[in-house]
Amino acid sequence: MYxxxxxxxxxxxxxxxxxxxxxxxxxxxxxxxxxxxxxxVVLATMLAVTLGLYSEGGGTALPVFWRAMYSSLxxxxxxxCLAWIIxxxxxxxxGPINAIMSSTFWVPLGRLTYCGYLMQxxxxxxxxxxxxxxxxMSSSLEMVVSRYIPNVVVTFIVSIFYSALFELNFANxxxxxxxx
Length: 180
What we know:
Blueprint (H helix, E strand, L loop, with lengths): L8 H16 L7 H20 L2 H4 L6 H27 L5 H6 L5 H23 L10 H40 L1
């Protein structure tokens, strides 16, 4: 069920609605009081979605109702929060969040994120297949050091090569054809 594309369609629809809004509405006036009220709500909602299942990691199961609510609404809530951040920053209501997100520091990482997204599953499968015996984790720190960091580092190394071999070359080809 998790791999079905229909599971994520709500977030895609929210993203398409935001894209339509940004394309067709050049100016949007957001009242200052609404802007000030939305930011804490958005940040609290994102924190709740991120940490919503924290107790489950410790062995305490949430009641079925709250698990169903989380499963059905967490992606929609996350998509709406991202939509607000994008809309607020695009129309000039982002403040320091816009300054952070618009920093040139993110440009190299932003170009590699899609390649990293495409390459992460093959890298995880490759690194997992290198273990000849069962893997036992005794702490979260051990899991981060032995699994998470190597997966991220190898994924970004592979993404650099993948981007250089395919993405940048196809972008140049497209640029040449568009300039004709």
